[in-house]
Design brief:
The protein has 3 domains: about 110 residues, Trigger factor ribosome-binding domain (Alpha-Beta Plaits, 2-Layer Sandwich), CATH 3.30.70.1050; about 100 residues, Roll (Chitinase A, domain 3), CATH 3.10.50; about 140 residues, Trigger factor, domain 2 (Orthogonal Bundle), CATH 1.10.3120.10. About 50% of the residues lie in helices and about 20% in strands. It contains 13 helices and 9 strands. Strands 5, 6, 7, 8 and 9 form a 5-stranded antiparallel beta sheet that branches. Strands 1-2-4-3 form a 4-stranded antiparallel beta sheet, with helices on one face. Strand 3 and strand 4 form a beta hairpin. The two termini are about 50 Å apart.
Length: about 425
């Protein structure tokens, strides 16, 4: 066997392999035996027909082609291993020459991990972390705001015939039609709006239009909303048609020790406030830590120019699309509904996300390279413990899960644990 490796780019190589006619004999015999094992040929016991008889029965061309496939399956991995190539996707294989009695020639386009030289990543991380270190505090106003939301969640509602005012909850049906595109609509039935909460999303002014409404009222008004599809500062005018179903007055419980004790493992208001402080502090620290991770990776990326494999970018884009599809399905929508709404094709959507996908892949490659530099390993025991923990929390039976799903979970957990260890080495993740 002879082969040549041609570098197309830093992450893409072409391997041309030649297997001599003499070297094809064992593959032909193995292929003939496989065919014979499933054939009934007169005069021979099943599986014992000689090569010449199988050739005449199956056809020389078909037999040779199947033997060539076996030769590729065996020779390709050997070449990859012997040349220490870290492939990141399945190869694109093309049979160049495949005729009975002759040599077999095939070409394989191979995508590989870039060989990158990292800067002083420990020093860079240390500098970034030291600059960012600041005391994270939770002030009393923040706690009051969270308590207010908790109070709202415990409120009882009572229908009222009076006009709606700030603090009320109002149930409505509404339809919003985009003025520059009548096919584009926003529509909801039995939609609740908490007046004065500012939680009507991007539709600024929506709540204000409902103040003074009573059950049975219909209202028409227009609002301008940001164009979320293209990320520009342009705004779209939307004409709303609203029917008020009911107005409900909120009866808020008093925030005291009794209120506090209605939450699990809490005895009084002071304890509740302290619990809120702890939770908010933990959340802020987690956000700060995630911000630091991205900042460190971005600093390393700027100092480490390398080609990001296009095949991995495409894979990441597919994952991003799948995530959006999952989110939409929870709201009873499809990706096609979303694409129609934003007036984009799937390809245009992917093109807009390409830089983000490229960045994500670059970060993954940097993390992988650091893990090799640091000699970081993840044991089967660590992975299995995390798998068991997941099933204990979810209450599902691990033994009833498909092996394919378990293996996907193990691969994901492997990467999560490995990255945690990398960030710990970078003095970011203390867990």
């Amino acid at each position: 066997m002879d082969f040549k490796i041609k570098e197309i780019s830093e992450t893409k190589k072409e391997i041309e392999v030649t297997i001599l006619a003499e070297e094809m004999k064992p593959y032909l015999e193995k292929t003939a035996n496989d065919f014979a094992a499933n054939m009934n040929i007169k005069g021979f016991r099943q599986g014992n027909a000689p090569l010449s008889i199988v050739e005449n029965t199956v056809g020389k061309e078909k037999l040779f082609e199947e033997a060539a496939k076996k030769a590729i399956e065996e020779t390709y991995p050997k070449i990859i291993k012997e040349n220490d190539l870290f492939t990141v996707a399945s190869p694109q294989v093309d049979l160049v020459k495949c005729a009975p009695g002759n040599e077999v020639v095939y070409k394989a386009i191979v995508y590989v991990m870039p060989d990158i030289k990292l800067p002083d990543y420990r020093g860079m991380s240390k500098e970034t972390v030291s600059k960012a270190k600041s005391e994270i505090e939770i002030d009393e106003k923040e706690i009051d705001g969270i308590l207010k939301r908790m109070q709202e969640s415990k409120a009882s509602l009572q229908k009222t015939e009076r006009p709606a005012k700030d603090g009320d909850a109002i149930m409505i049906d509404f339809k919003g039609v985009f003025e520059n595109d009548s096919d584009k609509k926003i529509e909801e039935k039995n939609f609740r709006v908490d007046l004065g909460s500012g939680e009507s999303g991007v539709i600024d002014g929506f709540e204000k239009e409902l103040i003074g409404s009573k059950a049975g009222d219909t209202k028409q008004f227009s609002l301008e909303i940001p164009n979320m599809a293209d990320g520009s500062n342009k705004k779209d005018k939307v004409n709303f048609d609203v029917t008020v179903i009911s107005v409900m007055e909120k009866n808020l419980p008093e925030v005291n020790d009794e209120f506090a004790s209605s939450f699990p493992n809490i005895e009084n208001l002071n304890q509740l406030r302290e619990k809120i402080r702890e939770g908010s502090l933990h959340e802020k620290k987690a956000k700060e830590k995630e911000k630091l991770k991205v900042e460190v990776l971005e600093n390393i990326r700027k100092e480490t120019p390398f080609e990001v494999p296009e095949v991995l970018v495409e894979k990441e884009l597919d994952n991003m699309i799948k995530n959006v599809e999952n989110q939409l399905s929870q709201n009873g929508k499809t990706i096609d509904d979303y694409l129609k709404e934003i007036k984009k094709t799937r390809e245009e959507l992917k093109e807009g996300w390409k830089e983000k996908a490229k960045q994500n892949v670059a970060y993954a490659i940097i993390l992988h390279t650091i893990s090799k530099e640091e000699g970081i390993d993840v044991t089967d025991k660590e992975i299995e413990e995390e798998v068991d923990r997941h099933f204990n929390i979810s209450g599902k039976n691990k033994d009833e899960e498909k092996e394919e799903n378990l293996n996907k979970m193990r691969a994901y957990i492997h990467d999560v644990i490995k990255n945690q260890k990398v960030f710990k080495a970078l003095s970011i993740d203390d867990n």
